[in-house]
Design a protein that fits this description.
The protein is mostly beta strands and 109 residues long. Helix content is 0%, strand content 53%. The protein has no helices and ten strands.
């Protein structure tokens, strides 16, 4: 059975990185799980502007969209141990500054 694994943007750190929950946005997933990234209340983030796949491996069957509640599904053929490095681009609400952050999604089973 698939689950939705949520990553919440809690805020912007002093060094212009994102405060992500859980585990700095580095998560483990199973085949057919969904990954959802959402903006937390009072996070200082106005919008999620993009998702860039920085890997040679694509683990998503349903590519994520660039919306404020970003969601994508893990491919049922993704091999265990496969991971995807990606960059989340957001805009800060106070300054319209663009911030990029690069967590990792890893397939467990």
């Amino acid at each position: 059975m698939s689950e939705t694994k949520k990553i919440t943007i809690k805020g912007i750190n002093d060094d212009d990185t994102l405060d992500l929950n859980p585990n700095d946005g580095n998560i483990n997933v199973k085949k057919k799980d969904y990954v959802q990234i959402e903006i937390g209340k009072n996070s200082g983030v106005a919008s999620i502007d993009g998702f860039t796949d920085d890997s040679t491996n694509s683990i998503f069957s349903d590519p994520p969209s660039s919306t404020n509640n970003w969601k994508g599904q893990i491919d049922e053929n993704a091999a265990p141990g496969t991971y995807e490095d990606y960059t989340i681009s957001v805009t800060a609400s106070s300054s319209n500054q663009r911030i990029d952050f690069d967590p990792r999604i890893t397939v467990n089973k």
